[in-house]
């Protein structure tokens, strides 16, 4: 798994009216994170200084004893003040920023913890985009199992989409374990592709394309029939 360059920014400022708060700047502690209540528009805003190259995530809870939940958003720092507006019907709430300094051109589609699930898909399903945990040690990250099956504890050797690849092979190949033809090219994921062609005198040459898999007896199955190994 990837080594994560991640951290936590506590939000120290109490919720207050906009006129009592100051603008964010690069030199401020905790990246200037503060909560603001806009009375005129009746909206809360979380503001901070977004450092260039840093990716931010937001967690929230209404009870510190219950733990933190991920909000479904990913924010890229660009060297300027950043804000997130929201409404809250609760009488109390807590927010905190988490961040990663892993370089990326697309923070939402990036996969910081190497579990084959994008950062945005992780926070949408409420899992940690910065940690690829495997609670039952079955070789399949919990976040990956949750994304495709809705629950952890899947059999790594099972083949639910009957494409010839087990769940662990699908994970390793970054294919969809619930869809036999993940890329829609008309060939099942478990089919191996070889690129080859023959020259005019029958010698193997570069280029061309052929797909093959294996039948139930272990023989190579090609588009032209079965050949014994």
Can you walk through the features of this model?
A hairpin with a 4-residue loop joins β3 and β4. Among the domains are: 6-113, Immunoglobulin-like (Sandwich); 192-227, no CATH class. With 229 residues, it is mainly β. The strands form four sheets. Strands 1, 5, 6, 7 and 9 form a five-stranded antiparallel beta sheet that branches. A four-stranded mixed beta sheet has the order 2-3-4-8, with no helix packed on it. The protein has helices at 119-125, 142-149, 167-173; strands at 6-10, 16-17, 34-38, 43-50, 55-61, 69-70, 75-76, 80-86, 94-100, 192-194, 197-198, 204-205, 210-214, 220-222, 225-227.
Structure in a nutshell:
By secondary structure, the protein is mostly beta strands.
Keywords:
disordered C terminus, Immunoglobulin-like, 3 helices, 10% helix, mainly beta, five-stranded antiparallel β-sheet, 229 residues
- What is the overall pLDDT average? 79
Strand content: 25-35%
Q: How large is the radius of gyration? A: 25 Å
Task: Kindly identify the CATH topology of the domain at 6-113.
Answer: Immunoglobulin-like
Low-confidence stretches: 11-21, 223-229
At CATH level 2, the architecture of the domain at 6-113 is Sandwich
| Structural classification | mainly beta
Counting DSSP E segments of at least 2 residues, the number of strands comes to 15
């Amino acid at each position: 798994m990837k080594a994560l360059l991640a951290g936590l920014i506590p939000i120290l400022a109490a919720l207050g009216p906009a006129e009592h708060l100051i603008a964010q700047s690069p030199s401020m502690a905790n990246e200037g994170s503060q909560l603001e209540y806009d009375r005129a528009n009746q909206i809360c805003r979380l503001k901070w200084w977004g450092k260039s190259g840093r990716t931010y995530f937001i967690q929230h809870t209404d009870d510190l004893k219950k733990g933190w939940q991920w909000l479904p958003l990913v924010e890229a720092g660009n060297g300027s003040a950043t804000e997130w507006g929201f409404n809250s019907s609760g009488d109390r709430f807590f927010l905190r920023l988490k961040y990663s300094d892993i370089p990326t051109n697309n923070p939402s589609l990036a996969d910081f913890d190497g579990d084959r699930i994008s950062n945005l898909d992780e926070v949408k399903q409420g899992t940690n985009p910065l940690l690829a945990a495997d609670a039952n040690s079955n070789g399949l990250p919990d976040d990956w199992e949750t994304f495709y099956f809705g629950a952890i504890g899947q059999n790594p050797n099972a083949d639910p989409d009957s494409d010839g690849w087990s769940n662990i092979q699908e994970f390793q190949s970054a294919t969809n374990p619930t869809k036999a033809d993940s890329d829609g090219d008309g060939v099942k994921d478990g089919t191996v592709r070889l690129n080859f062609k023959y020259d005019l005198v029958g010698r193997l040459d570069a280029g061309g394309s052929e797909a093959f898999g294996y039948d139930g007896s272990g023989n190579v199955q090609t588009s032209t029939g079965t050949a014994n190994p």
